[in-house]
Design a protein that fits this description.
The protein is of the alpha+beta class. The chain contains two helices and four strands. A four-stranded antiparallel β-sheet has the order 2-3-1-4, with helices on one face. Strand 2 and strand 3 form a beta hairpin. It is elongated, with a radius of gyration of 13 Å. The protein starts with a strand and ends with a strand.
């Protein structure tokens, strides 16, 4: 069994925490449904222009787990053109 974790740092086009919440909840909810991952906002909750999202997947195949998180990052990039991915880091636990 392989466990992979991805931490994605985003720059958001939001000017209030309410706008940020709408963007973050949309990304997290759709990611759960589309990729079957566990996810949450893990840092920088008090800043409305940045977000740090964490995603975790478990698989019996190392390649499938890693590819899932890579596809997730591409999906965020393509699905939210106004959201900039400033950093991304995938680790195996």
């Amino acid at each position: 069994m392989f466990i992979f974790c991805s931490e994605i740092h985003l720059s958001l086009p939001a000017f209030s925490l309410k706008e940020k919440r709408g963007i973050v909840k949309s990304i997290l909810g759709r990611a759960r449904n589309r990729f079957n991952v566990s996810c949450a906002e893990v840092d920088r909750q008090d800043n409305c222009q940045v977000a740090v999202l964490g995603f975790v997947t478990v698989s019996p195949d190392k390649t499938i787990a890693r590819n899932t998180l890579d596809r997730l990052e591409d999906w965020i990039y393509d699905g939210w053109p106004d959201v900039e991915i400033t950093a991304s880091h995938v680790t195996e636990l």
